[in-house]
Task: inverse folding
């Protein structure tokens, strides 16, 4: 493995024994979506390897990006091709193998020991927890999106005055076997909301406005209510932070805006998990350091920074206690994203931690201990998954 300097830093020196141990880890992907079971055209594939929701312009290709180059480097060999093959060769091989075999190979090579699958986004187009478990042969549990439950309650014909009670009842029923909850308040409003729980009267009034107008839930009063009902439910609560599709206002997705909520929620003991966080991963690391109820990952940022993901992972290790950092891929759709999430994370951890060992800053056994914590043990503790069988 070649060395790679971080910006402004010395070359990284991987330690072969440490790299081999990290390669063998069975990771817990604590925030991920299902793989697509369908064959994909080139246009469909390219539109699924970007966070843009716009059509790919005819004069460019998404393969000419960090994530595109990473697919051709790291996924091509898993499908029986040479690294750095052409996009046409890659897609032709993918089509010949078919979606089921592509998924089997890429997911199998990822080395995941447990999936926590968030089902609230276009779930009918991808494999659910049972489908992912059947395909991979490893456990796959559900993370339930609060906003999806609220919209299901509204669609059932619930009146405004009854909304709060019906939502709480439905959430408890919907999460009987779930491992966690998620909110996309960053998409629907922003993180700069009043952190205090709204009153019953405020919730009923806001529910009336929403139900009269229809559409998705985006009223800040209702979103606050969903979050606080989720906290009362007691399961770990995930927040989308930072980078995402154009539906998110990146300026209003800085996790520092959640400080008021974090402090109000702290007595509950409910873990708050900040997802992805790029480019605000250093802010997330600060919050995870100073608040015992805050955890974070750099999942989505790893895939889309590709060859530069080593720097992102290194920055995630700067401030936070290592017991507060988790691994995720946030993959949705093409199994390439599931595979890359794990492959690029292992590569980055091997280089960053190996550099610490080579420089004499850390002993090798402690470096491996950190990789084990971030890769799986922290998620097993936070979500109550127990020890891997």
Result:
């Amino acid at each position: 493995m070649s060395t790679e300097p971080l910006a402004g830093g010395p070359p990284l020196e991987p330690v072969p024994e440490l790299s081999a141990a990290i390669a063998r880890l069975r990771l817990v992907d604590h925030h991920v979506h299902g793989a697509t079971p369908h064959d994909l055209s080139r246009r469909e594939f390219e539109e699924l390897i970007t966070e843009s929701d716009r059509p790919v312009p005819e004069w460019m290709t998404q393969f000419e990006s960090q994530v595109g180059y990473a697919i051709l480097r790291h996924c091509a060999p898993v499908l029986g091709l040479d690294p750095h093959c052409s996009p046409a060769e890659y897609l032709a091989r993918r089509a010949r193998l078919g979606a089921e075999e592509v998924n089997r190979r890429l997911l199998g090579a990822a080395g995941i020991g447990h999936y926590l699958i968030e089902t609230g986004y276009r779930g009918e187009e991808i494999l659910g927890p049972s489908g992912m478990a059947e395909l991979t042969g490893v456990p796959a549990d559900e993370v339930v999106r609060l906003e999806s439950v609220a919209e299901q309650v509204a669609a059932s014909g619930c009146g405004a005055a009854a909304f709060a009670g019906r939502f709480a009842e439905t959430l408890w029923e919907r999460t009987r076997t779930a491992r966690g909850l998620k909110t996309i308040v960053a998409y629907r409003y922003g993180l700069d909301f009043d952190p205090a729980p709204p009153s019953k009267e405020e919730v009923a009034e806001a529910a009336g406005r929403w139900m009269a107008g229809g559409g998705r839930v985006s009223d800040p009063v209702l979103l606050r209510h969903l979050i606080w009902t989720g906290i009362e439910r007691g399961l770990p609560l995930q927040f989308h932070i930072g980078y995402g599709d154009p539906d998110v206002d990146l300026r209003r997705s800085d996790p520092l805006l959640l400080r008021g909520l974090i402090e109000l929620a702290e007595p509950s003991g409910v873990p708050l998990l900040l997802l992805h966080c790029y480019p605000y991963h250093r802010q997330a690391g600060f919050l995870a350091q100073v608040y015992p109820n805050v955890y974070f990952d750099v999942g989505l940022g790893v895939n889309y920074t590709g060859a530069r993901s080593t720097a992102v992972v290194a920055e995630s290790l700067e401030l936070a206690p290592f017991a507060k950092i988790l691994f995720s891929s946030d993959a949705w759709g093409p199994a390439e994203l599931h595979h890359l999430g794990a492959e690029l994370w292992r590569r980055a951890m091997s280089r960053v931690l190996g550099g610490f060992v080579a420089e004499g800053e850390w002993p090798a056994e402690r470096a491996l201990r950190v990789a084990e914590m971030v890769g799986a043990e922290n998620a097993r503790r936070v979500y109550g998954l127990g020890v891997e069988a």
